[in-house]
Design goal:
Layout (H helix, E strand, L loop, with lengths): L1 E5 L5 H16 L4 E3 L5 H11 L4 E5 L13 E4 L6 H7 L3 E5 L3 H12 L4 E4 L14 E3 L3 H14 L14
Parallel strand pairs: 1-2, 1-5, 2-3, 3-4, 5-6, 6-7
Helix pairs in contact: 1-2, 1-5, 3-4
Amino acid sequence: MISVVGGDRASEKALALAEEVGRELADRGCVLVCGGRSGVMEAACRGARSRGGHTIGILPTMDRSGMNPYVEFPIVTGLGYARNTVVVLSADAVIAVEGSYGTLSEMALALAYHKPVISLASWTFAREGHEPPPVIQATDARDAVEKAMAAARASAGPSTDEVPAHGD
């Protein structure tokens, strides 16, 4: 399972990249997990479903309102942005396509939970005096999916019982 994260308002370039990521994931038999709404999430789901792939939408609302029509399996949470944790923890790797602060939070959560993060035209990180976090840069949709799958296979990560310590 690979999560695709990105903004609900996205550029045409980001939408095209996300749709191609969805197709690439479906072609490789991956289940796509996302926030289930519009923008990058909808484009990725559309791409996956166009190739017969499966899509899970982790919705922030208490009902299915705002869900994109390409979500095959909606999960209603009522959690708002807190649902970003579920989006991240449900995946073996996270692909971020463009995005704003919600995407940034998902990337940070993935790093905190030791999930591989692949950035496709998305955020980069730097902090003076600190080693940059292991965000993997991708050049296109195929590269992002290949890197996500390789990183997911290579990453044993912490046990599911392990929660990052405060401040990690």
